[in-house]
Every structure is written in structure tokens, then in C-alpha cells.
Amino acid sequence: MPVFTHPEFDDHEIVAFHADPKTGLRALIAVHNTTLGKGLGGCRMWPYRSEREALTDVLRLSRGMTYKAALAGLPQGGGKGVVIGDPRRDKTPEMMRAMGRFVDSLGGRYVVAEDSGTSVPDIRLMALETRHVGGLADEKAAAAGRTGDPSPATAYGVFVGIQAAVRFKLGRDDLKGLRVAIQGVGNVGHRLARHLHEAGARLWVTDIHAPAVERCVREFGATAAAMDGIYALDVDVFAPCALGAVLNDATIPALKATIVAGAANNQLARPRHDRALQKRGILYCPDYVINAGGIIDIHYEGPDYDAARVKAHLDRIGATLRTIFERARGDRRPTGAVADRMAEERFKPDRGAIGPCTSC
Ligand code: NAD
């Protein structure tokens, strides 16, 4: 299977394959770029239909982590692990320990955390074999207010991002009466709804899981919206907090919102949808910038966890977005492209890498 000519290959520093016949583990780790620090990223377990599909995912996701960390102002690079298999059927403690040994074999250039199909207990099993793990709340950190769940930090970061976008696009400093449609009110979406409700916003919500919608109606006076109808609602902000690829040829023309700001990863179905949003005058908050709260929170884990410092860092998501919006307006370029460029200025030596943001 060709790697260097793979369409998602982007000068990744490491692409490693590993099989452990004793436990049935078949896994890949990709480290995209370590200019700013170790390659941190989750380990996903998924029943990939082919090795090529797993390779595509690990290349794409590890690259995304480099960009995310760079614009979050963190001294770390991007990496990702994938385990081929069905987490409900195939996962065993021995397999997770074997994954830990695979992580360890890279000597710390990859730092593993949880992702879809793996959980904190799985990372704890890996931690028996390697010290290169992230996202584990130890007892002292828990006492200082860290739960180990990144969702509260992610939701707060998205809320800060919405405030910045509203200030820039609508020229308003408060969110009273702001109309927001949230797609997906799970771990992040529900917490985001709470922040917005407390700030006086009016909410429309949708979710394939009916009780999640009912909870928002009950707790925040939200209006339940139809699944497909969420895009065309007459609102100010559309907040995708469920799945990727929701900004596409079908949905972008339907949007009435002038701001898109949500937690979901990979919101643009294709890179060209960045420009499609710009053409429609919609301010798009690049997903990996606005949803970086989780990795920011992980960065501060450990015995010295200080919730106030984490909040101060999360608040800077607003300033980063404002810089992106201003550059996009000045250069007449889409916000996603501007964000990519700004990230590359930090980690690509040939762009005069300036290192992590010194004020972050
Ligand atoms: P979650 O699984 O807790 O919540 C997602 C919600 O979306 C669920 O309630 C689910 O029922 C709903 N959903 C699924 N398909 C839907 C559809 N077609 N229409 C409407 N609702 C649908 O996940 P989460 O942790 O809240 O994460 C939400 C998104 O944010 C994901 O894309 C995730 O990758 C991304 N993200 C999460 C974090 C984090 O800290 N949890 C960090 C960065 C990015």
C-alpha cells in the first residue's frame, strides 16, 4: 500500500504499522509534525473496511492535530493512532496493553489519548506499558477541578468563539436574544446550550436522541427543531455539534444563519466549502480552532492543574478567531484557509516557523 504517494500524505514524520498476533492488535500510528512538541492525539478504534481506509484516517487526523495544537498556542505537535477492529466486539485489555507497547516503541514522539472507540480505562491500560499518555485525570488534578472529560472545556471554548464571532459579524457585545440553532446536544452541545441560555440566547435544538432534545427544552426553554430543518432556520448562529461534513453543497445554500460556530470536527465536506461560505457572507469559525478546548485542558493536566489558568487560555480562543476574521477580511480569503496559513506559520520551518504563541 503506497504511503508517500497517498493523497492524505503530507510529509508526515512517522507512519508506523504494527501487528501483535497474540492479542489480535492491528494498528497504525502517524506522527505528522513535531516542530512545536510531541505529537499528541487520540487513539481511535473502528471497524475499518480496509487498511487503506485506516491509513487515510490516521494520516488526515494526525495532520489535523498539528494544526489544532499550533493555533491553540500549545507546545505540541500532531499525532494519531488507529486500531482496526470493532471496539464492542474485539477490544480486550491485553490488546490495549499491546497498543501501549506500540506507543512506547516510538519513544515519546507520539502521546496517546482517548478517542472514539477508546476510553479513559483503555488509556490507563496503555499507561501500564508506556508513560507517553495524555488525558488521564490524576487524583490531585481531580481535586483541583479537572474531571478528565474534555467536553466542559470544549463547550466553553465554543461559547467564547461564538461571542467573538457575534462581536465581529453583528457588532454586538452581549448575546441577549441571540438566536442559535444547535445540531447535536450531547456532551458538548448540551453544555454549550447551558452557557448560551445563561447569556440570554434563544435556542433551537435537534438530535437523533429524543431525550437529549427534551432535556434542553425542559432546562433551557429551547425549541425542538426537525432534523433536516435545522439548517434553514431563521437564526443568527448555526452550531454544528454532532457530526462532520454538515457544511456541503446541499446545506450551505439553505443556511440563514450568518455565523457558523460549533464543536463538530471536519465540518466542511470539501475544502472548497470554505469559500462557498465566504461567498454567501457567512462567517465560518474554523472547527479546529473553536473546538480546541479539550486539548487545551489536557495540556494543563497533572498535579498543578489550575482551573483559572485553563480558563484564561480558553478565553484566548476568542482572540485567535478575531485575528483570523480580520486577516480573512483584509485578504478577502476564506477563514478556513487563513487559519491553515496561520497554523503553518507556527510549525513549518520553511514558513519561518515562529514557534508557539508567546502570549499563550
Ligand atoms: P456526543 O456523542 O456526546 O454528542 C453528539 C450528539 O449528536 C449526540 O447526542 C448524538 O445523538 C447527536 N447526533 C448524532 N447524529 C446526529 C444527527 N444526524 N443530527 C443531530 N444530532 C445527531 O459527542 P460530543 O463529545 O458532544 O462531541 C460532539 C462533536 O464535537 C463531535 O463531532 C466531536 O468529534 C466534536 N468534538 C468534541 C470534543 C469533546 O471535548 N467532546 C472536542 C473536540 C471536538
Write the layout of secondary structure elements.
Elements: E1 14-20, E2 25-33, E3 39-46, H1 51-71, E4 77-84, H2 87-90, H3 93-105, E5 110-114, H4 120-126, H5 139-143, H6 151-170, E6 179-183, H7 187-198, E7 202-206, H8 210-220, E8 223-224, E9 237-240, E10 259-260, H9 273-279, E11 283-284, H10 287-290, H11 293-299, H12 307-331, H13 335-347
Parallel strand pairs: 3-4, 3-5, 6-7, 6-9, 7-8, 9-10, 10-11
Antiparallel strand pairs: 1-2, 2-4
Helix pairs in contact: 1-13, 3-4, 6-7, 6-11, 6-12, 7-8, 12-13
The structure holds nicotinamide-adenine-dinucleotide.
Nicotinamide-adenine-dinucleotide binds next to helix 6 and helix 7.
Number of E strands = 11
Order of helices and strands: EEEHEHHEHHHEHEHEEEHEHHHH
CATH architecture of the largest domain: 3-Layer(aba) Sandwich
Low-confidence stretches: none
The number of distinct helices, counting runs of at least 4 residues, comes to: 13
Total number of domains: 2
Structural class given helices, strands, pairing? alpha/beta
Mean pLDDT: 93
Task: Characterize the main sheet.
Answer: 6 strands, parallel
Can you put this structure into words, describing what you see?
The protein has 360 residues and is α/β, with parallel strands linked by helices. The chain has 2 domains: 14-63 and 77-136, Rossmann fold (3-Layer(aba) Sandwich); 151-346, NAD(P)-binding Rossmann-like Domain (Rossmann fold), CATH 3.40.50. It has 13 helices and 11 strands. It has helices spanning 51-71, 87-90, 93-105, 120-126, 139-143, 151-170, 187-198, 210-220, 273-279, 287-290, 293-299, 307-331, 335-347; strands at 14-20, 25-33, 39-46, 77-84, 110-114, 179-183, 202-206, 223-224, 237-240, 259-260, 283-284. Helix 6 packs across helix 11 and helix 12 crosses helix 13 (335-347). Residues 150-151, 154, 183-189, 206-209, 212, 227, 241-243, 263-265, 291, 294 line the site of nicotinamide-adenine-dinucleotide. Nicotinamide-adenine-dinucleotide binds at residues 150-151, 154, 183-189, 206-209, 212, 227, 241-243, 263-265, 291, 294.
